[in-house]
Every structure is written in C-alpha cells, then in structure tokens.
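Standup notes
- HV: blocked on the assembly model, inputs below
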Amino acid sequence: MSVLTIEGRGNWRKLTLNRPDRLNAFDDELKSEFLSAIQAAAADSSVRAVLITGAGRGFCAGQDLAAVAVDDDGASIGATVAHFYNPLIAAIRSMEKPVICAVNGVAAGAGANLALACDIVVAARSAKFIQAFSSIGLTPDAGGSWLLPRLIGDARARAIIMLGTPVPAEQAEAWGLIWKAVEDAQLEAEAEALATALADRPTKALANTKKLLDTSFSAALADQLEREAESQGHMARTADHKEGLAAFMEKRQPGFKGV
Ligand code: LHQ
C-alpha cells in the first residue's frame, strides 16, 4: 500500500497522505513521495488545481517522531527542515494553480502548517489544528511563524504556538485561520466540488492572485499598486480574459482553458 495516493480527476489532481495508523505523520518515504508529487503537479500544465487530504481519522501529525533520533547537534532536524519542509511549503505557495486542503482530522505541527500554507482550507468539524512544536521543545516550522500572524494576528498566534492549545475547526473558521468548517460527512464532497470549480477558473489569474497576496503584507501600497497594474497588463493578454469578456457580452458561461 502506497504511503501517498495520487488520483487524476480530469483537470485537477488529488493527493491523499496514506499512513493512517500514524495519523499520516511524515516519515522519510512519505516526505520524498509527497514532495515529488507536489513538484510534479506544479510542473504539469494539464493539472489546474490540487487537492490535499489525509486517509483515516487524522489529516497529518507532522513529523514522524519515531523517525527522529535524538539529535544533539541539531544537524538532522535542521536538514529535514531545509530539504523537505521548506521546499514543500515554497512549492505550494509558488504553485501557479490553486491548492485546496481538506483537513479530515487532527493537523499537528508541520501537518497543521502544511494545511495552512494551502490557498483554501476546508476542515471537518471534528478536526483540530495544533501547533505542537513547543510541547516537544521546538519552534514552528513549515512556515508557521510567517503564516499564523498573517492569518489570525499576533496575539492569537503567540498563544497557540506557546501553549500548544488545539484550535477546533469551528474556532479556526471564526478566527479566519481557515476558509470553512463543514460537517464531517460533507468534507470530501465539498472539497472536491471546490477543486472542480477552481480547476475550471482562469488559472493564470489565480496564479497571479497568489503572487499578489503573498507580497501584500510586506509591500508598500505604492509598490503593491504597481504590481497590480503590471499583473493586469499580463492578464489582459491571456486567452482566458478574452473568453471571460466574450462570455459576459454573450450572456453565457465562460469556458476557461487556463491560458
Ligand atoms: C505518531 C505521531 C507522530 C509518530 C501520532 N509521529 N507517530 C519536528 C521534528 C523534526 C524535524 C522537523 O520538523 C518537525 C516538525 C513537527 O512536525 S514537530 C510536531 C510533531 N508532531 C507532534 O508533536 C504531534 C504528536 N502527536 C500527538 O500529539 C497526538 O498524536 C495527536 C494530538 C496528533 C493526536 O492524538 P490522538 O488522537 O490521541 O492520537 P494518538 O496520540 O493515539 O495517535 C495515534 C497513533 O499515531 C499513536 O500510535 P499507537 O501505536 O499508540 O496507536 C501515535 O503514537 C501515532 N502518532 N502522531 N507525529
């Protein structure tokens, strides 16, 4: 049984973390397969959206702690962050297509931050997000220290990181940590409907939206306005923009091709 299930669904792809007895914690095999799958989805222009979820009752418990030896000089932990978690999060954020995360159960440590790095996060009501790092004497990785203050503000970010307090899905939605909490039984259908809808939208516009949003907290308004103008210049030349305009004028649904 593969530790990662990869399913093509027409113009989008579903990746399911599949080590359910370990709550889909990342051991070396899953790390390698998942990073390769994310990079392959990014490189394949026929894939216009990616959905990430987990098998079983958990989404992802972060690093497989059984696979972490006591690391007195920190070299091995430092290396796994540099060679897996960092490129993984960078690949998701820079992927030129939407990445949806369906959080089907507990998301802890790097597993929580993997989910939060995705563009749209839907969670089952029974799911929870745990910044588990400080409970084992570590600090956030997988982008947590960057993402959390941006998503929920400094006060909440500090508290949940320092205390390791689980944040239930409904609280996460109320705080703006995620897009939506849904009934457990509805999660798969809702997430797949989102992926289907996003894959049919103008992919280049969504990709450039990601770029604009990633700089919005650090850029001066004047610089961001310039970026927006530059982006519109690029978008105006896309076939999807022409199709969107034509569909509007002809009072019909657009058929975007992602180009
Ligand atoms: C696990 C894990 C797990 C192995 C549950 N590993 N087996 C860190 C270090 C190095 C490099 C770089 O990056 C990082 C980043 C990180 O991700 S640090 C954070 C690592 N994750 C955690 O500290 C979470 C540890 N897990 C838990 O606290 C609990 O399992 C949670 C709260 C996630 C779920 O609790 P329960 O629902 O009560 O489930 P459980 O604890 O009974 O877990 C079920 C099984 O999964 C159990 O095995 P068993 O043989 O007893 O059935 C756990 O040992 C195993 N498991 N997480 N990370």
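- HV (later): unblocked. The first strand starts at residue 4 and ends at 9. Residues 4-199 form a domain with the 2-enoyl-CoA Hydratase; Chain A, domain 1 fold (CATH 3.90.226.10).
- Next: hand off to the docking folks.
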